[in-house]
Specification:
4-stranded antiparallel sheet, Rossmann fold, 26% strand, globular, alpha/beta, 7 helices, 228 residues
Length: 228
Amino acid sequence: MIEMRNVIKKYSNGTTAIRNISVKIDQGEFVYVVGPSGAGKSTFIKLMYREEVATGGILKVGKYDLLKIKNADVPYMRRQVGVVFQDYKLLPNKTVYENVAYAMEVIGRKKREIKKRVLEVLDLVGLKHKMRSFPNELSGGEQQRISIARAIVNSPKVLIADEPTGNLDPENSWVIMDFIERINASGTTIVMATHNREIVDTNKHRVISIENGRIVRDEEEGDYGYDD
């Protein structure tokens, strides 16, 4: 599903964030991405949904080659990739329903189809009763659940979660992880960057560790492996 071969990312200021990374992630896998702050985790994650563009190498997500893809095809590629952020990134002036529906509206889905699917995913995250609320009326945990609903509303093949529990207390972190585990159980590939040792050590999955822009560890059912 995701393949990198000798991928490099250099920024214009001369910083090399990713150094010759090669990795393959199969459909349906659940992968944690761990490592010290500043190690290149966020860049690694952003390359997968083309928020950042690799400087060299080969990077494929599904049928798309992200170094050769035309800009016009990027929205189609992103239909296959849902993204959940640490800071939610909900639209403050739209209701819960409108925030989730927006992800379908931008790709031209019909209103009837949008309504059916939005209600389905709001039910999945247990917040259908909040669909007329605005983001500032929700708790942090509820906002992240809406962020997840928005990320999966188009049934992506890959869900990328960048520190999804970073702003949450332990109780809400486990609620969010329950939803992410259920999404993975349905066949969606999960790539999750995290600093949460307890989650990684409890919910065992493949662990990729990045340090200084390189993969230094890649193990099935690995531990977190850091003191921070």
